[in-house]
Amino acid sequence: MEAYGRFAGVYDIFMDNVNYGEWTDYIIEALVQDGIKDGLVLELGCGTGTVTEMLADAGYDMIGIDNSEEMLAEAMEKRAESGHDILYLLQDMQDFELYGTVRAVVSVCDSMNYVTEPEDLEYVFALVNNYLDPGGLFIFDMNTIHKYRDVIGDRTIAEDREDGSFIWENSYDSENALNVYELALFLPREDGLYEKCEEEHVQKAYSIEAVKAMITKAGMELVAVYDAYTHTPGDENCERLTFIAKEHGKSAENDYHGNIPERARHIEE
């Protein structure tokens, strides 16, 4: 079952409880404090482009990458309304390519948890480092083991709205730290009946230490780990964490070729 297919059309409706504005303000504050007030910024897993648009409003030249054509279609509708010059790319963030470097990379709403193999997440981090300007920032959030295991694991969440309904069943595999979401959507049709659509989403939980090790191996420096979108130090008891990492020097002494998996090396050669 494809993830973010029919769900894309109602995604913003069902995600209206997420304070994207607050998240974006936090990201902008972190960027500005590091001297990044404008220039190219990449959002990985941009989805319907809500945060991408807000960052464009703040004056950044935005690039959005997502592997769902349906989600990007929603994002491009927003772009048509706003008039922002945002470049959207239909790419898998596990193997994305750009034509040059960017000042910062951001990723919100647990997009990184969709990378379920540690070596693939390490590869994503290496690519991010590869495409960051010297001293560029990488800001992203991730759900924690605690959230999957203790908060939403093996729970069913249901919601009934005028624009549709959903049943979201969670099951957590503690051995592999995988959370499987079985999503059933019930969307209204023109004839007054409802059509059932099903999707499966799989996310993986990573420990702080594991993420820190991957960031370091990718050639970046971990600046901070916070309880999501706050300035409170984060730990394994938080439900969501915000990580801030920094590109800290691609030099002969710290040759980033050695930090990028073989399949990515063609990008900068």
How would a textbook summarize the main sheet? Answer: 7 strands, mixed
Shape: globular
How much is the radius of gyration in Å? 19 Å
Distance between the termini: 37 Å
Average residue pLDDT: 87
Q: How do the strands line up in the largest sheet?
A: 3-2-1-4-5-11-10
Number of strands: 11
* Backbone structural class: alpha/beta
Count of DSSP-assigned helices: 7
Main features:
methyltransferase, SAM-dependent_MTases_sf, alpha/beta, transferase
Briefly summarize what is shown.
With 269 residues, the protein is an alpha/beta fold. The chain is built from seven helices and eleven strands.
Tell me what you see in this structure.
- The protein is of the alpha/beta class.
- The chain is 27% helix and 33% strand.
- It has 7 helices and 11 strands.
- A 7-stranded mixed sheet has the order 3-2-1-4-5-11-10, with helices on both faces.
- Helix 5 links the parallel strand 4 and strand 5.
- Helix 2 packs across helix 3 and helix 5 packs across helix 7.
- The longest helix has 14 residues.
- The protein is globular, with a radius of gyration of 19 Å.
- The C terminus is likely disordered.
Please write out the topology:
Layout lengths: L10 H4 L5 H14 L5 E6 L5 H8 L2 E7 L2 H14 L4 E4 L11 E6 L10 H14 E12 L1 H8 L3 E6 L2 E10 L4 E11 L5 E11 L3 H10 L2 E8 L12 E8 L22
Parallel strand pairs: 1-2, 1-4, 2-3, 4-5
Antiparallel strand pairs: 5-11, 6-7, 7-8, 8-9, 10-11
Helix pairs in contact: 2-3, 5-7
